[in-house]
Amino acid sequence: MAASFTCASCSYRSPKWMGFCPQCGVAEPLVETRERPTRPSRLAASTTVSAASSQKGEKRLATGWLEVDRVLGGGLVAGSVVLLGGEPGVGKSTLLLQLASAVGTRGATALVASAEESVQQVAMRAERLGIAEEGVELVADDDVDAIVALAEQRSPQVLVVDSIQTVGVAEIPSAPGGVSQVRESAARLIRMAKVTGTAVVLVGHVTKEGGLAGPKILEHLVDVVLYLEGDPDRGLRVLRSQKNRFGATHVSGMFDMRSDGLVEVDDPSKMFLDGWEPGVPGTVVFPAVEGRRSVLVEVQALVAPTQHSQPRRSIRGLDPARVNQVLAVLHKHAGISLSDMEVYVNVVGGWRIDDPGCDLPLALAVASSASNTPLGRLAAWGEVGLTGEVRAIPFEARRLEEVSRMGLDTQLAPTGGTPLRLVEVLEQAGIAASAPRPR
User: Fold this and answer.
1) Integer Cα distance of 341 and 302 in angstroms
2) Angle CA 313–319–322, to nearest 5
3) Is 217 or 392 the better-scoring residue by pLDDT?
4) Is the domain covering 58-266 a CATH 3.40.50.300 domain?
5) CA separation for the pair 380, 242 (Å, rounded)
6) Neighbour order of strands in the sheet with 252-258
C-alpha cells in the first residue's frame, strides 16, 4: 500500500510529512495514511424510482421520545447513518443507551457496540438508568469487521457504535482515531447500513475548537449530524440537528440531565423563565425560533464600572463579534458609551443563540443595565443595523404566539416590514438616549 500524509482537518494530502497543513493552516502535523490498491472497475446496478419506492418497506422507526423524533424528523430511517457529537461527559452514551431502550420497548431490537467501555460497565449504567429490556444487546469490541458481522447475524433495527474514533479495521496499520481509520471504519458501517437496512448511530468526539474530530468527509458521508450540548450548571441538554437528509435542519430537542438519566423537557419556555425577575435592570425576554418551535429565553446584561484600562467583555450564549457590534451601535447612534465600563452578557440556561433577531434584546438589556432602568415583563426581537436601524426578522407569528402564551403583553419589535430607529425603541422602553435623531 502506498503511503501518504493527510491533514486531519481538511483532508489535504501530501507525499511527504509536514508539521503543519499548507492548505488550511492548522498547526497540526500531517498524519500518515496508507491507501489500499484500487479494485478493478465493475458495472453498477441501477433501478427506477418507482421500483425503489416499492421496496423501501417501513419508512421510519419512531423512538418513542418526542424530542428525539422531532429532531430526526419523525424517527430513525431504515438504513440511515446518524452521527452524534458532543463534549466529553455531556451525556452522549446515556442518551443513546436510553434511546436503545426506548426502541426495545416498542418491539424492535438494538445492538450497542462499545469500544470505550466493557459490557459490565455499560450494564452498570443501564442498571442506574433502570434499563432491563431483552431487546437491547451489548458487545464490547473495537474491530469494525467483528461488529458488522455480529450485526448481520443479529439483524437489529438499530446499531449504536460508541465511538467511531475508537474502532478500526485490521488492514490499516495506524491506530484507531486516525484519518484513514475513521474514514474506512465509517465507510464499512455505512455500507452495512445501506445493504441490511439497519439504522446506525455513530458517536463522534469533538475537538477543542468544538468541531467533530476526524476528517471532515465523515460529516458528508453520514445522513444526519446531531450535536448534544449542555450546561453543566443546570443539567440542561440541547440536541441540535446540523444536517438531516430526511427532515429539517436546525431543529432542537431539550432534556434535563438527572441522576436517573435524561428526561424530556416539554415546555422549555417555562423552564427558561423560571426564576426570572422582570423588575431588575438588564433583563429582556427573546423569543428564539429553531425549526418549527419558538422558545422564550432570558437575555441578561450587566454593565459595571472598572479601573482597568481595557474593560472586560464576558459573553455567554451569543456571538462575541455581534455583541461588540451592538455595543458600537449603542455608542454611535444612542450616545451610550461603554468604553470605560465592563459588560457581561449571558443567555440564561446555557442556550446558544445565532439568530440576528437577538440584537434588539441585547441592546435593550445593555442599555437597561447602564441606565439602571428596569424594563418589566418585556419581550423584544429585531436585527440592529450599523446605521442604527432595527429591522424585522422572520417567523414573527410564531414569536408572537409564544409570547402571548406565556402572558407577556409588552413587545418591542419592528412589524410590517418597516424598520425602526434604535433611539426610538429605547425611548419606548423608557431609556433616555442622548444621541441626536437622524435628519
Assistant:
1) 10
2) 80
3) 392
4) yes
5) 27
6) 136-140, 110-114, 158-162, 199-204, 81-86, 224-231, 236-244, 252-258, 261-264
For residue 109, which of 142, 158, 71, 149 has the smallest C-alpha distance?
A: 158
Concatenating the DSSP letter of every residue in 279-346 gives TSTTEEEEEEEETTEEEEEEEEEEEEE-SSSS--EEEESS-HHHHHHHHHHHHHHH----TTEEEEEE
Tens digits of residue pLDDT in 36-64: 555 566 677 777 777 766 665 547 898 88
Reported as type and span, the H/E element at residue 160 is: strand 158-162
- For residue 251, the model assigns a pLDDT of 81
Nearest in space to 298 (alpha carbons), one of 266, 268, 272: 272
Q: What is the pLDDT of residues 221-236, one digit of tens each?
A: 999 999 998 766 667 8
- Which amino acid is residue 223, in one-letter code? D
Which class would CATH give 271-428? alpha beta
Neighbours of 328 (CB within 10 A): 12
State the amino acid at position 46 in one-letter form: S
- At residue 332's C-alpha, the angle toward residues 326 and 335, to 5°, is 100
Rounded mean pLDDT, 366-373: 94
Q: pTM (2 decimals)?
A: 0.74
